[in-house]
Design goal:
Blueprint lengths: L24 E8 L2 E2 L2 E2 L2 E2 L2 E3 L6 H6 L7 E2 L12 E3 L1 E2 L8 E7 L19
Parallel strand pairs: 1-9, 5-7, 6-8
Antiparallel strand pairs: 1-4, 2-3
GO molecular function: copper ion binding; oxidoreductase activity
Protein name: Plastocyanin-like domain-containing protein
Family: Belongs to the multicopper oxidase family.
Length: 122
């Protein structure tokens, strides 16, 4: 599935002093358990994921329209009514993005991320 590959990118000064890098973007991902169409679902920032018929990486690589909604998920939770969708978030190439996982539920949530060079800070 790796249709293109890249290597780790140092910070602008050419070193790997990650604690000194100012993130270019912050994304807060808030999980919830809303009822959508009468069924209990799980959602991130108000969007409950629907698995598409075409794999996301293939749809992106071959530019197949209508498979997913690019940047439809907001960087911060909006509190709007939850809905079903195939939301994908993009980021600028070689940018440093801070991702905050926000859990307002009474139960523990687990997450899965695809990408490279993740650093857990707290």
């Amino acid at each position: 599935w790796n249709l293109t590959a890249s290597a780790a990118r140092p910070n602008p000064q050419g070193s790997f002093h990650y604690g000194q890098i100012v993130p270019s973007r912050t994304i807060v991902l808030s999980n919830s358990a809303p009822r959508i169409n009468g069924k209990q679902r799980y959602a991130v920032n108000g969007i409950s994921y629907v698995n598409p018929d075409t794999p996301l990486k293939l749809a992106d690589h071959f530019k197949i329209a209508g498979v997913f909604s690019l940047n439809s998920i907001q960087d911060f939770p909006s509190g709007n009514t939850a809905y079903l969708g195939t939301a994908v978030t993009s980021a600028a190439y070689h940018s440093f993005v801070e991702i905050v996982f926000q859990n307002n539920e009474d139960i523990l949530q687990s997450w899965h991320l695809d990408g490279y060079d993740f650093w857990v800070v707290g």
